[in-house]
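Reviewers of the previous submission asked for a worked example of the structure-prediction workflow described in the proposal, so we include one complete record here. The input consisted solely of the amino acid sequence. No template or homolog information was supplied to the procedure at any stage.
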Amino acid sequence: MKYLFKDINFLETLSKQGEIEDACVVVDDNVITYVGKVQPEGKFDRIVDCSNMVMLPGFVNTHHHFYQTLTRNVKSVQSAKLFDWLVNLYEIWKNLDEESSYVSATIASCEMALSGVTTSSDMLYLYPYGRNAIFDEEIKGVSHVGLRFHPTRGSMSMSKKDGGLPPDSVVQDENEILSEYERVISKYHDRSKYAMTRIALAPCSPFSVTESLMIKTLEMAKKHGVLLHTHLAETKDEEEFCLEKFGLRPVDYMEKLGWLNPQVWFAHTVHVSDRDIEKMKANDVGISHCPTSNMRLGSGIAPISKMKGMRLSLGIDGSASNDTSNMILEARNAMLLQRVKYGPDAMTPKEALEMASMGGARVLRMDDYIGSIEVGKAADLVMFDMNKLAFAGGLDDPVGAIIMCDAQKVNFNMVNGRVIVEDGNLKVEDIDYLIKRQNEISRKLLKG
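From that input alone, the workflow returned the following structure tokens.
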């Protein structure tokens, strides 16, 4: 299908073309074939009038836990710090099954689609005994909504009896984990340009995975040419754990394991020193900054302003430590939180948007085909209708208004040439059923 988006009030390409007023974009099937001011001639299957619209590249979320949408706002852990929060919720999460994985993935994907996400990663690291297929169901759930997906096959191998946090029933031995790594890479990893599904490997954290598994995961990632991901330096408790168990702070421990390399991206990196940052920067490590979760759990403020020059992105993080799946809110919080610590010029609205889109594309090593609006890239586009109450009086900088004002949700979302949100409405026919079923499953899990 060939689209002409004409009279775009304001286009932010995040490419060398920069910002264009009264712009036109042509999409042919799933690829952008024209970006400019002059309306091209030709025959189009659909012409979209964008005279009140701001168009941006779709957002790229680099860290999430979709299944946690089932356990948002759990009263007993509303004010808990990370380790206590985890210990309590593991007892609920250990009862996850295939249906709960599918439904929660669709719910998270719907929320993200409405907040401008076109590509998302997810770390699914918790596998109740015999439930490896929850990974497959998650992929089906995301596909149902239509997002581009880069799931990470997570893992935990160190339970309470080994000095970790999770119960025995949700950890796996190394042989099973390594076998599952091989299976999901073989089944789902698409190396082609414009791929809708790619796989990364993600041992959960230094306090839930053995040193041996970290090293074997690295070896497998190198063998298959896939990326690596883990949580790192999220809390002071984690730093104390690493010092006590390994005699090293988290970044130094990663260095010892060989995990400071260009295949890797870390979530959080809140408690890192200037020396840690230089080490990560020198090794081209990617970062997924999760400001809302870090605030929600009282974990601290990641020094993102000191990391400029690195591959920086945004992560929504689990919806039980964020309680939304809203990428617009994440970008706004990223900007505001840096300003709290480093001053009003620490992050601009455009820098926040760049982290949310092109930054995420770079972190996931997909920037050859997503993250900006330019000829040859995938048609991953979002638009905001500026003729809305939230933007009234805020149009001196229409692109900045997305972050500075109360954007709430996108008006339009196209992923790989397929429209998944139009006129602010999801094109997911069974959304009412999915919401109802999500609440039923959530109630059952909370009752035990």
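DSSP finds 13 helices and 17 strands in the chain. We consider this example representative of the routine output the project will generate in years two and three.
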